[in-house]
């Protein structure tokens, strides 16, 4: 049996997201991190991990490279495109030089090959946390020629400022943080309306229609698209 001890150089209460599909490996890792003083969330699928990392504040991510649906490198690359600088430690059974280089180029802050010693994982996690303490939070989102200033609470496309209601602003922020991805009704209900059930109304459709009129009308190429049967996607024109 392995014993985990709280280390004095760990900031107790720091929040870590573990994205790992192997149930036993995830349980071992979560248990060890919690006993070392961290607050830990776990996602078993790549898409779930990306959504959690995009919408919740974490001090660091521990990401398995091989995941069902969406691999770990794609998760990190997407977060970096969104402007998310959350430190990421990649775990992988692929340990060749080219594999490690690919992980770092994707935006990973460190790369640890499986199997690993938990003590080394803790040390590497502490190192990326120290480096990440100087990272600045995202204050500006950009998709094509559409810009959102999160501090000033302004939106403009090209040189035209767009007046949005508070709910429309939150809706657009959610779509911009997931630019290039399909955002489902469930995701929008949870993130924008804070509903954890479907009220079976057309509230989303109405707000999306109004938002589309404001950000796309009068421009030659639309940014906001309906993906029939799936949700909505905000993406740069091709």
Supply Rg.
Answer: 20 Å
The assigned structural class equals alpha/beta
Question: Helix fraction?
Answer: 25-40%
User: Major beta sheet, specifics?
Assistant: 5 strands, parallel
Per CATH, the architecture of the largest domain is 3-Layer(aba) Sandwich
Describe the overall structure.
The protein is of the alpha/beta class and 238 residues long. It has two domains: 15-132, 3-Layer(aba) Sandwich (Rossmann fold), CATH 3.40.50.2300; 140-234, Arc Repressor Mutant, subunit A (Orthogonal Bundle), CATH 1.10.10. It is 38% helix and 20% strand. The protein has eight helices and eleven strands. The protein has helices at residues 23-35, 46-55, 72-81, 97-105, 118-132, 166-177, 185-191, 203-216; strands spanning 15-19, 39-43, 60-64, 88-92, 110-113, 140-143, 146-149, 154-157, 160-162, 224-227, 231-234. The strands form three sheets. The chain has a five-stranded parallel beta sheet, with helices on both faces. It has a four-stranded antiparallel beta sheet with strand order 6-7-8-9, with helices on one face. Strands 10-11 form a two-stranded antiparallel ribbon. The longest helix has 15 residues, at 118-132. The chain is elongated, with a radius of gyration of 20 Å. Residues 1-12 have low confidence and may be disordered.
